[in-house]
Specification:
Helices cover about 30% and strands about 25% of the residues. It has about 250 residues and is α/β, with parallel strands linked by helices. The radius of gyration is 22 Å and the shape is globular.
């Protein structure tokens, strides 16, 4: 998506728009995550999303403003047929599961498959484990998560929509992976000390949330180095064949 609109907002002369779609099983906290991000509050009374809902929120950076257009989807099976059309042209898809609900974790494969079948080639996929405030009731362990994330080369974050832990980190990491290398300022900025060295690690501790970086960044670099080495060896072999020896 990443549309640029004219006009001024704050100190920015343009706004980059990013479409974010959040999906996952019913009752994993999708709407609560977005509500915490949007209003900074949590509603204890659960009201399931019916169909599709959306809103936008601006993030302010030192030199620009970006607008996240966030689409909230229903987790009920009867609404599943509506979701694929909304995944098209998404810049980022967040798939949420409940760390206290093993079934919601096991459903990630199905959600991820559906998302990849309907998303663009450059869409960023983020897995989010919600309800870390209930860690004593956790049924999904870190080894299971790391195996799934590593196999599918995804970004992983954990949060609590109830107490707000990890929510700002989640959307700052999304903004960073969308190409916005600076962190949002004002009260949105939780940590600003992530640097380029992060790409050399698989897991970075970030305000008690796990940030698993796409491993193919490192793998692609290794492939590039191997290709360079192979090209040098191939050129040397060709040069040897071209040499002519003269005598007398």
């Amino acid at each position: 998506m990443n549309n640029v609109l004219p006009g001024e907002l704050g100190s920015s002369s343009s706004i980059n728009n990013y479409k974010i779609v959040i999906i996952g099983d019913i009752n994993v906290g999708k709407t609560s995550i977005l509500s915490r991000f949007r209003y900074g509050s949590f509603e204890s009374e659960y009201m399931p999303t019916l169909g599709i809902d959306f809103f936008s929120k601006n993030l302010f950076f030192e030199d620009k403003t970006i607008r996240l257009i966030l689409w909230d989807t229903a987790g009920q099976e009867r609404f599943r047929s509506l979701i694929p059309s909304y995944l098209k042209n998404a810049d980022c898809i967040i798939i949420v599961f409940d760390i206290t609900n093993k079934e919601s974790f096991l459903s990630l494969n199905r959600w991820l498959t559906d998302a990849k079948n309907n998303a663009n080639e450059n869409t960023i996929f983020v897995i989010c484990g919600n309800k870390i405030d209930l860690k004593e009731k956790r049924t999904v362990n870190e080894n299971e998560i790391n195996e799934f994330i590593g196999k599918n080369e995804l970004i992983y974050m954990e949060c609590s929509a109830k107490n707000g832990q990890g929510i700002k980190d989640l959307f700052n990491i999304i903004a960073k992976n969308l190409g916005e290398n600076n962190f949002a300022k004002s009260d949105f900025n939780v940590r600003g000390d992530i640097n380029n060295n992060d790409t050399n690690n698989n897991i970075v501790e970030l305000s008690n949330s796990n940030y698993i970086i796409k491993q193919n960044l490192v793998e692609n670099e290794n492939k590039k180095n191997n290709n360079t080495k192979n090209n040098i060896e191939l050129n040397n072999a060709k040069n040897k064949k071209k040499k002519k020896f003269f005598c007398c």
